[in-house]
Design brief:
Blueprint (H helix, E strand, L loop, with lengths): L1 E5 L3 H13 L3 E5 L2 H10 L4 E5 L7 H11 L4 E7 L3 H9 L4 E5 L4 H47 L9 H18 L3 E8 L2 H8 L1 H16 L7 E6 L2 E7 L3 H17 L15 E8 L6 H17 L5 E2 L1
Parallel strand pairs: 1-2, 1-3, 3-4, 4-5, 9-10
Antiparallel strand pairs: 6-8, 6-9, 7-8
Length: 313
C-alpha cells in the first residue's frame, strides 16, 4: 500500500520511512504540510502519517484538507506527550489514530500503520463491493425492463402484442367513458396472404409482415398504438379520435401499403400487396372494448367481401 509520511524533521521522517518500507509499504515523504498536500493532490495516498506541529500548515490543517479531497484516506497523527490534547482533537476531526513521540518502540509505528492500512483496504473493498452491487442492480433493472418489453411485444414485428392491445383498449374505453371522449379502432388484414406465403414461402411472408408493421407506424401520433392482433391481422388504437378522423387515417394506411413495392407483389390477385380495413369507434359502435373490436371486425370482413383493398366503417 502507498503511504505518505509528513514531518519537518528529516531524521525522524527517514527513520519512519525505513521502518515502513521494511514492512512492505511504498513510502513517499514530504517535509511540510503544503508539500504533502500537493503530493496528495497528484496521487491520493490511502494512508498518511503526519506530525501535528510543523512550520506553515499544521497536521490538523493537513488532516482537514486531505479529508475534503478524499474522506476515505486514513490519517495517523504524530504528537508529543505535551500536546496529547491536540491528538484527541485530531481524532475528533477524523484521524484514524495517533503516535506519541518519542516512540517507545519502532514496532508501535508498524502496528499502527498496519491497522490503518487494513482499515483503508476494507474501506476500498467495501466501496468496490458497493459499486459491484450498484452495477448488478442496474443490470438487473435493465434485464427486467427488457423482459417487460418483450412480454408486451410481438417477436416478429416488434409491434405490441394482442394481450397488450386488449389491456390498453380497456383502459382507453374506461377513460373515454369517464371523460365523455371518443376513441377508434382500425382493424386490418393482409389480402390473400395465404397465397403470398404459398407462392413465395414463409420467410418472405414474415418479411412482408415486418415491413408492413413499419408502414403502419409511419405518421402515427405518440398517443396512438399499433399492435399485431394475430397472424396477418393488425390493429391501431387511436385515442381522442372519432369515426370520421379514424376513416381518414385508415385510408391513408391502406394507400401507403398499396403503393409500397413488396417483393413478389405483382403475383397477388390485385397485382400488388394490399390490406382490407375495418373501423369502429367508441361510443358510436359499442359501449365496451369487445363490442368495438367486434364492430371493427365486421367492417373488415365487409371490406373483404366488397373486393378488398378498401376501408369500411
Amino acid at each position: 500500500m502507498e503511504l505518505l509520511v509528513v514531518d519537518d524533521e528529516e531524521t525522524l521522517r527517514n527513520v519512519i520511512s525505513q521502518v515502513l518500507t521494511a514492512d512492505g509499504f511504498s513510502v513517499a515523504e514530504a517535509a511540510t504540510g503544503e508539500e504533502a498536500l500537493e503530493a496528495f493532490r497528484l496521487r491520493r495516498h490511502p494512508l498518511v502519517i503526519t506530525d501535528i506541529r510543523m512550520a506553515g500548515m499544521s497536521g490538523i490543517e493537513l488532516l482537514h484538507q486531505i479529508k475534503e479531497h478524499n474522506p476515505e484516506t486514513e490519517v495517523v497523527i504524530m504528537t508529543s506527550h505535551a500536546s496529547l490534547d491536540s491528538a484527541l482533537t485530531a481524532l475528533r476531526a477524523g484521524a484514524y489514530d495517533y503516535l506519541i513521540k518519542p516512540f517507545e518502540s519502532l514496532d508501535l509505528i508498524s502496528a499502527v500503520a498496519a491497522r490503518a492500512a487494513e482499515k483503508a483496504r476494507l474501506v476500498a473493498q467495501n466501496r468496490e463491493l458497493l459499486a459491484q452491487l450498484q452495477r448488478a442492480n442496474r443490470e438487473l433493472q435493465e434485464a427486467n425492463d427488457t423482459l417487460k418489453e418483450m412480454a408486451v411485444r410481438d417477436g416478429l414485428t416488434s409491434l405490441f402484442n394482442h394481450r397488450y392491445f386488449q389491456e390498453t383498449l380497456a383502459r382507453e374505453v374506461a377513460r373515454c367513458r369517464r371523460y365523455q371522449k371518443e376513441c377508434s379502432v382500425i382493424f386490418m388484414d393482409v389480402d390473400n396472404f395465404k397465397l403470398y406465403n404459398d407462392t413465395h414461402g414463409h420467410p418472405e411472408g414474415d418479411r412482408l409482415l415486418s415491413t408492413l408493421s413499419g408502414l403502419l407506424c409511419e405518421h402515427l401520433r405518440e398517443s396512438d398504438l399499433a399492435a399485431r392482433y394475430g397472424g396477418e391481422e393488425f390493429v391501431l388504437l387511436l385515442p381522442e379520435t372519432g369515426k370520421e378522423g379514424a376513416l381518414v387515417t385508415a385510408d391513408e394506411v391502406r394507400g401507403r401499403v398499396a403503393r409500397h413495392l413488396f417483393p413478389g407483389g405483382e403475383s397477388q390477385p390485385l397485382g400488388k400487396v394490399t390490406i382490407s380495413v375495418g373501423v369502429a369507434s367508441f361510443p358510436a359502435d359499442g359501449g365496451d372494448p369487445s363490442e368495438i373490436v367486434e364492430a371493427a371486425d365486421r367492417m373488415l370482413y365487409r371490406a373483404k367481401h366488397e373486393g378488398k383493398n378498401r376501408v369500411c366503417g
